Automatic annotation (TrEMBL):
Keywords: Cytoplasm, Metal-binding, Notch signaling pathway, Repeat, Transferase, Zinc, Zinc-finger. This is E3 ubiquitin-protein ligase. PANTHER family: DELTEX-RELATED (PTHR12622). GO terms for molecular function: ubiquitin protein ligase activity; zinc ion binding. Its EC number is 2.3.2.27. SMART domains: RING (SM00184). The lineage of its organism: Eukaryota, Metazoa, Chordata, Craniata, Vertebrata. Pfam families: DTC (PF18102), zf-RING_UBOX (PF13445). InterPro entries: Deltex_C, Deltex_C_sf, Deltex_fam, Znf-RING_euk, Znf_RING, Znf_RING/FYVE/PHD. Pathway: Protein modification; protein ubiquitination. It comes from Mesitornis unicolor (brown roatelo). GO terms for cellular component: cytoplasm. Belongs to the Deltex family.
């Protein structure tokens, strides 16, 4: 028998008649052409789990407490940029015949940086000790001054991190616990629920527009991980990312275009509990590995867990 084509109808039971009307017109046209048609409902978006009572919520084995708070940015140690960079660099007496990827001038020539002038000679060249990439010292100091000035440095060529990278996440609270429901694709375990809450406030000196108000849309934000060995590992690393203020930032929303608002900061979370219609849910067999790679790109790895214990 011939396969009957289907016309998915969004919002079939909703208040707007537009989508059902369009589907109806499509069905009429297909029928007029002698084609059979069947209307179908699309899969349902499931953002949240079934209701969970307080007595059903449990702490996560192997992870202390159920809540973390962040306060305002701590004062940094009074080291000059030159003192910070000295730990990560070796001086290069004979620069290679290539461009500095920061200013795009030849390394054999003085730095082409035209902004506020750092207190270092523009013709000095240094090599980062771990990755071996070479830059004008003048350019590296300028780059450091334009960043978070937290004592860390990230190679602009390969993104290798030197020191402990921290972010500019505004103050807030992170809660985490177990709920007795399974995620699609993880029927063999319970679910870790993370709840982020950041209130609106005023931007500090580390933010894009110091002294200006910022908004915080969509909070509290609920996120989900399977309560598996790898899921608990991801949670432990997310706790470090939270403490280092790397999960959120203040910037321009890619979905609404709103500026001076709290946005995600390149560490993806799953905010859809029982479906994956938006791409932010389950099942997703690659998600845990992908988020581990994103955390590593921020300098948060299993080594970080060992350092936290130390």
């Amino acid at each position: 028998p011939r396969r009957v084509p289907t016309v998915p109808v969004k919002n079939l039971n909703g208040s707007s008649p537009v989508n059902p009307a369009l589907a109806g017109i499509t069905g009429i046209l297909m029928s007029a052409a002698g084609l059979p048609v069947c209307l179908t409902r699309p899969p349902k978006l499931v953002l949240h789990p079934p209701p969970v009572s307080k007595s059903e919520i449990q702490s996560i084995p192997g992870i202390s407490h159920t809540c973390r708070k962040t306060t305002k940015k701590q004062a940094k140690k009074g080291k000059t940029p030159e003192e910070v960079l000295k730990k990560y660099l070796q001086k290069v007496r004979h620069p290679p015949d290539e461009d500095c990827t920061i200013c795009m001038e030849r390394l054999s020539a003085p730095s082409g940086y035209k902004g506020p002038q750092p207190a270092v000679k523009p013709d000095l060249v240094g090599k980062l000790v771990k990755c071996g990439h070479v830059f004008h010292l003048h350019c590296l100091v300028a780059m450091y001054n334009n960043g978070n000035k937290d004592g860390s440095l990230q190679c602009p060529t390969c993104k290798t991190i030197y020191g402990v990278k921290t972010g500019t996440q505004p103050p807030g609270k992170m809660e985490y616990h177990l709920i007795p429901h399974a995620l699609p694709g993880h029927s063999d375990c319970k679910t870790i629920r993370i709840i982020y809450n950041i209130p609106p406030g005023v931007q500090g000196p580390e933010h894009p527009n110091p002294g200006k108000s910022f908004t915080a849309r969509g909070f509290p934000r609920h996120c989900y991980l399977p309560d598996s060995e790898k899921g608990r590992k991801v949670l432990k690393l997310l706790l470090i990312a939270w403490d280092r203020r790397l999960i959120f930032a203040i910037g321009t929303s890619s979905t609404t275009g709103e500026s001076d608002t709290v946005i995600w900061n390149e560490i993806h979370h799953k905010t859809e509990f029982g479906s994956n219609l938006t791409g932010h849910g389950y099942p997703d067999i690659n998600y845990l590995d992908n988020v581990l790679a994103e955390l590593a790109a921020q300098g948060i790895t299993e080594e970080s867990l060992a350092q936290e214990k130390d």
